[in-house]
Here is the input.
Amino acid sequence: MVQPHVACRSVDHYHGVMTSPPFDAEGRFQRPVAQLRNWITPDGSAGPTGRAGYAAEAGRYHLYIAEGCPWCHRTWMFRVLKGLEDVVPMSMVTLAWGPKGWAFDDSSERYRDRLHGRASVRDIYEADTPDYAGPVTVPVLWDDRTQTIVSNESADIIRMFNSAFNDVTGNSTDYYPAELRAEIDEINERIYHRLNNAVYRAGFAQTQLAYEEAFDDVFDTLTFLEKHLATRRYLCGERITEADWRLFPTLVRFDVAYVGCFRCDLRRLIDYPNLWGYTRDLYQRPGIAQTVLPHIYRLGYYSIPIAVGHGRIIPKGPVVDFATEHGRGS
Here is the structure.
């Protein structure tokens, strides 16, 4: 089965977001599918989906993210890993939910739209399509030359960042090498359905059946990963790949958000020695720590209506120290 492509939907974080989430007849959360899927390529030729015309150039594109969103986190990390900070500028939405959804704060250096000073992400979608009526999602990769959205699919954006700009930056590190693609795709498929998205299926479940199905998927997969990582440093061996960076955002949010807010509370990440060491190993890679913000995860997840049973009280813990020695090699 082909993996669904996902973006951070308006059911994911912050105030006012659980307005009309999609569920099936059994109360299972159904994540919507990303719709805008063009590709940046080295020469502007067409990618696997969408239309041609998006050539890799410094300063032409702009990335919009929510810093608490795990799907956005992928793109932020790849921007760092591939040395794209000066090539693809980035703006972040605020923690507050505005009248149009994801919002910027023009008075804030951190949370303003650095490109055009727009008030909301919806304004970006409407600049692309004036009568836009679909879901407004992040991440968004914007082309300022054509005034269009390149993509709102995180899985595609990280693959663009992985290779499209190599000639621009001189950074040829490959996190999706040809010889490992089949293995990466296979493990991505499993981890997406049974962990990355399963924590949301548990947290947003509308019935006991839906919750228990998702809960079992989460902890079956964590057990699988713990055993898998007992004999290899990373998911595909001794080399860090895309699969590791797609898993990582879920792991760094697990103890501070998913255990409590999403009721994924059988065990904590720190109860899995191999996974816990592996997470710290990835965290300690150059540039990654700056993208990990546990205090933002607490504020975001415990402020959404799904957490109303917690009285909208933001917990002070747990404290998770990702900087301690990981013991998984140098």
In short: The longest strand covers residues 61-65. The radius of gyration is 19 Å.
